Amino acid sequence: MTLSIWRYAHLALAILSSAFLIILSITGVILAVDAINEKSPAYKVDNFENLTLAQVIPTLRENYFEILEIKVDHNDFVTIDAMDENGNSFQAYINPSTGKKLGEIVPKSDFINWITSLHRSLFLKETGRAIVGVVSFLLLLISISGLILVIKRQQGIKNFFTKVNKDSFSQYFHVVTGRWLLIPIFIIALTGTFIFLARLEPLIGKPTEVEHQIKENLPAKELKEIEFFQNTKLSKVEKIEFPFIPDDEAEPFIVHLRKKTVTINQVNGSIISESIHPYSAIVEKFNIDLHTGRTNVIWAAILGIASLNILFFIWSGFVITIKRTRTKIGKNKYTANQAEIVLLVGSENGSTLGFANKIHAQFLANGQKSYMAQMNQYEVYPNAKNIIILTSTYGLGDAPTNAKKFEELVIKNPQKNNISFSVIGFGSIAYSEFCGYAIKVDQLLAKQAWATRLLELKTINDKSPEEFTNWVNAWNEITEIQLASTPALYAGKAPRLKNIKVEKVTKTSTEDATFKVIFDSKIKYQSGDLLAIYPAHDHRERLYSIGKVDSKMQLIVKLHEFGLGSQFLHNLSENTTIKARIVKNKAFHFPKKASKVIMIANGTGIAPFLGMIDENKNKIETYLYTGLRFNNHISKEYQNFAQKQIQNKQLNEFHFAFSREENRQYVMDLVKRDDDFFAQTLKNGGIIMICGALAMQHDIEKVLEEICQSHLNQSFNDFKTNGQFLTDCY
Ligand SMILES: Cc1cc2nc3c(=O)[nH]c(=O)nc-3n(C[C@H](O)[C@H](O)[C@H](O)COP(=O)(O)O)c2cc1C
């Protein structure tokens, strides 16, 4: 049978029974705790297993005036129901070997009685019992289908307990705890079903009565001499009814054992009759013991944990199902016939579809006729120029469920035009066949006469947005249709946006079109973090480095004529709010401890450093090197700020280079000039931070390499790997 039939059966049964299962599991946990509690105080005596009735009955007779009965409960505690000399009846726990009273019998609390009744019959008497019986049976079927799903997932029964790869929290724990708790849950379900069945009239057997021949004139015996008492252990007894009047032959002892009830002549000790319990009654008791854990603390604890876990199964099972429904594809704007870009998705749990959705939305926003379908819906696309396949892998290099028919369909429906194809595989290196199915699909398409490879197969481990942007970059390089290459955009969860208030947008400097935006916001962030804004009010985000100055969020932005982000920021009105989010950039936070920090920036890359200097309350020795084009009002403002911070002792020195002024200078010229200082700083464990253009970073790294080689006879790489070089360049 296919995986999906088992999966649907498992799900349908769970949906059908979940409301009742929730009630039964919660009450089950409470009853399990009660079963454990019941065992303390412990009234079981040490030699209980060895005591015979020949020892117990005479002792009790000596100690008590008139005994009605004694009972041995499932905890092996013995209780007595007797009368004292004054004719007052009493019940108590006793020590069966000495007859001593051990404690009062405390009745179950109203709460426990209420819970027990809810658990047994949902307060609906016989109807409720029937519902509970049916739900137990459904739970039995759920555990069987669950067992089969685990076996299938683990590729056979022999791998049942081998490692489960962590795909998502809910899935991982559903499978892992499922493996361990399947047996107790199976037993709970099976015994629960039997307890219900055992109450059905036709299944209840009748006891077998055995009358013994009564021998006349047998000699009288003392109680301790009666053979039956000598041969019967107290531990096998459930109840003994004592004769009303001692020494009267007409008044027998009635001993209730697990398997039978025996009537004994109290004078001569002969067995008068035996009533052998039907098999169903014995099984029922055993079932109740197993179902309630009342005879064993450890088993009661296991049942409690298993019951609790049923709640967890219900929760995680539904999370998995909801995730799975995410593999459904929404309505397309264009038909398969109109489509120029076709995105085909193979996804079991929806994450691959998430990636596909994001590029589909961008294609549509760029005016492309993009069409998305499941791989199982493959057909002929008369106008397609590009087919992009995004598929995950399951089993041992197998297709996800919605791609199972793909191979057959590709062979059956050859395309009529030449179409470029590109395959992106989603998988996990934890599996031996990493992206095995994507590899198969890539090879299959390569063999089709109509297909031309656009890009090499790209495999992506563990849904990595970074690895996905490698494919995006490769796509952007060879096609006209540009896709966003910010990894954060492709990260799993849709980001939660916050409202932040615009406090001020400064005028742009005439020479290099730079301006400052100040936000007033209570969101948590730190200088060096990034602010993600959504200028097109869609999912495409632009990131800006943040400086926290005077407790305000400050961005320094260069206005680009066609820059969506910079134009958006530039046009903001004061006292309005925008939707944005913080992208934590831990790798670029100001060090909490360092012997020395050197900051290198060019252009707007100075933004986070202004904040870091302002926040340098520990007065770590800090040096700022900045490269700008012009020495204008903006650079003057930076210099004034730096001067003030030197007075505060939050900055030690600052150096500016201007590339469009007299004596053209770049920031790397300043580094070269202070080569000895840079070498010593690195040697002494100091940290260099760099923010600005990627090209500047390359140049600076080259200069630092030369400095390290000539001054320290060492490679700059050593300091990089040592975490002494922090970068945030774009
Ligand atoms: C039961 C199971 C089996 C898997 N088998 C493989 C495999 O053989 N090879 C592989 O590369 N990834 C395997 N994976 C990992 C998935 O392909 C990967 O997590 C993928 O990103 C899931 O995408 P989806 O959410 O779109 O289905 C397996 C995952 C699970 C849960």
Automatic annotation (TrEMBL):
Location of the Flavodoxin-like domain: 341-476
Q: Which Pfam families match?
A: Flavodoxin_1, NAD_binding_1, PepSY_TM
Keywords for this entry?
Flavoprotein, Membrane, Transmembrane, Transmembrane helix
PROSITE patterns per record: FLAVODOXIN_LIKE
Which superkingdom? Bacteria
For whether the record's keyword set contains Transcription regulation, the answer is: no
Membrane-spanning ranges = 12-33, 130-151, 172-197, 297-322
The molecule here is called: PepSY domain-containing protein
Q: What organism does this protein naturally occur in?
A: Faecalibacter bovis
